[in-house]
Design a protein that fits this description.
The structure holds two protein chains of two kinds.
Chain A lengths: L2 E5 L2 E4 L5 E8 L5 E7 L5 E9 L2 E4 L6 E6 L2 E6 L8 E8 L7 E2 L3 E5 L1
Parallel strand pairs in A: 2-11
Antiparallel strand pairs in A: 1-3, 3-8, 4-5, 4-9, 5-6, 7-8, 9-10, 9-11
Chain B lengths: L8 E5 L4 E6 L8 E7 L6 E6 L4 E2 L4 E4 L5 E6 L8 E8 L13 E6 L1
Parallel strand pairs in B: 1-9
Antiparallel strand pairs in B: 2-7, 3-4, 3-8, 5-6, 6-7, 8-9
The chains are: A mainly beta, B mainly beta.
Chain lengths: 112, 111
């Protein structure tokens, strides 16, 4: 069966520190992968998506970057976190013929 | 993506049907109507999607107006576990370039 793993579940980081969030998908190949962020009390914002290894599309200019080093691995990074980077980060995947996106359980990031 | 309009919140009683409306007057001919829901502190969950005809699955039904300018998500018998934020989203099927989530409708279920 297909599953999506996202970790860590919660993270508290100081301002100016680096960030690396990882997402992996199992049981499928060549999925489209996505990073979303949900700030407190707000809707989900699409940050990045990838249709293949090394292919990244950025939706919003910001302090974050994404990479896809392997087919089923998607990484969200930052060199220096800002307070405004706090939020609930969600990874998602979809593949041709599938009805809808599957989202991970999310990482709640608090920048202090 | 074309825009959707949903009520901020709705209340319903447990074990009763719930009709969640969505207006999308600028929908294009190739836009599919997707519904997702998000329980507190969880990622969104796919509910249902459709193009022109009404759709049914194990979770819900989707009723689409003949002119496609509005749709209604129907939960046939609400339970407390259906309390969530429900999002109505327009996109090409699958939305390969990502979905645009609005604020959705906060559904409250009273026991």
């Amino acid at each position: 069966s297909q599953t999506i793993h996202q970790w860590p579940a919660t993270l508290v980081q100081p301002v100016g520190s680096p960030l690396s969030l990882e997402c992996t998908v199992e049981g499928t190949s060549n999925p489209n992968l996505y990073w979303y962020r949900q700030a407190a009390g707000r809707g989900l914002q699409l940050l990045f998506y990838s249709i293949g290894i090394g292919q990244i599309s950025s939706e919003v200019p910001q302090n974050l970057s994404a990479s896809r080093p392997q087919d089923r691995q998607f990484i969200l990074s930052s060199k220096k976190l800002l307070l405004s980077d706090s939020g609930f980060y969600l990874c998602a995947w979809i593949q041709g013929g599938k009805d809808g996106y599957t989202f991970g359980s999310g990482t709640r990031l608090t920048v202090v | 993506d074309a825009k959707t309009t949903q009520p901020n919140s709705m209340e319903s009683n447990e074990e009763e049907p719930v009709h969640l409306p969505c207006n999308h007057s600028t929908i294009s001919g190739t836009d599919y109507i997707h519904w997702y829901r998000q329980l507190p502190s969880q990622g969104p969950e796919y509910v249902i999607h459709g193009l022109t005809s009404n759709v049914n699955n194990r979770m819900a039904s989707l009723a689409i107006a003949e002119d496609r300018k509005s749709s209604t998500l129907i939960l046939h018998r609400a339970t407390l576990r259906d309390a969530a934020v429900y999002y109505c989203i327009l996109s090409l099927r699958g939305g390969a370039d990502g979905l645009t989530f609005g604020k959705g409708t906060h559904l409250i279920i009273q026991p």
